[in-house]
Specification:
This protein is 34% helix and 26% strand. The chain is an alpha/beta fold. It has a domain of 142 residues: Rossmann fold (3-Layer(aba) Sandwich). Strand 7, helix 5 and strand 8 form a beta-alpha-beta unit. The two termini are 26 Å apart.
Length: 246
């Protein structure tokens, strides 16, 4: 699903992703974990086509990608952002937010399709007429996930999808994402600072520090702390007192 070789990305004069190479298999869930500022979200935005100042080689679903993505790229790749309130237009209804991907791709508005998407994420048709401020944080993130799934993409990019939510809601959103992936056979790339969340959703993970991958491990090795890199071991040790099961 993803082949990345030597990805380097900049913000102005600052190099924030340094020579990163990795693969993600079709149907695999791959996590990227690291502290804030390590370059995780920038790398995800490079894959999504939202960050243009990068170099290296990137293929998604077998097609080489440049800085300018083809119009139908959104049918293959979609993204869920960290802040569900910030990613939804405050003056657009839920129905309009879910219709937007269809409109962009020239697909006719279909209320039944939107209602089905809401049901898939645990909401009902009554939410279609609501505005973001009328929803809880967990409901807003469910809407954001539904919007990301409207075009039935093969790859879902998840940028800290639960970090803006109360702890009591996080497990529900992770369970929803697991169900979606199992039902649709999708590939996931999940960015998080939480080792517990990566373990819950991913088969493999990379530990990122100062823009580089310093170790790649299975979720099982991450869970057990079977790590070789000193920074990865420190990250694991620091997380032990704050981890919860999902």
């Amino acid at each position: 699903m993803i082949e990345a070789r030597g990805i380097t990305a900049r913000h102005g004069d600052n190099v924030v992703v340094r020579d990163v190479s990795f693969d993600v298999a079709d149907g695999e869930s791959f996590g990227i974990v690291g502290e804030s500022g390590s370059g995780k979200s920038t790398l995800l935005r490079v894959i999504a086509g939202l960050h243009r100042d990068w170099s290296g080689e990137l293929s998604v679903a077998g097609k080489k990608q440049d800085r300018d993505r083809p119009h139908d790229f959104g049918r293959v790749v979609s993204m869920v952002f960290q802040d569900p309130y910030g990613s939804l237009h405050p003056r657009q209804t839920v129905g309009r937010a879910l219709a937007e991907p269809l409109i962009v791709q020239g697909i006719r508005y279909d209320a039944a399709r939107i209602d089905a998407a809401l049901r898939d994420v645990g909401l009902d048709a009554s939410h279609r007429a609501r505005y973001p401020h009328q929803l809880s944080g967990g409901q807003r993130q469910r809407v954001a996930i539904a919007r990301a799934l409207m075009l039935e993409p093969r790859l879902l990019l998840l940028d800290e999808p639960t970090s803006a939510l109360d702890a009591s809601v996080q497990a529900d959103i992770l369970a929803l994402l697991r169900r979606v992936r199992q039902a649709r056979g999708m590939s996931f790339v999940l960015v998080s600072h939480s080792l517990a969340i990566v373990e819950a959703l991913c088969e493999r993970a990379a530990v990122m520090q100062q823009g580089s991958f310093v170790e790649e491990v299975s979720a099982g090795d991450l869970r057990r702390g079977n790590l070789h890199n000193s920074y990865a071991r420190e990250l694991f040790a620091a997380s032990r007192g704050f981890r919860r099961a999902f």
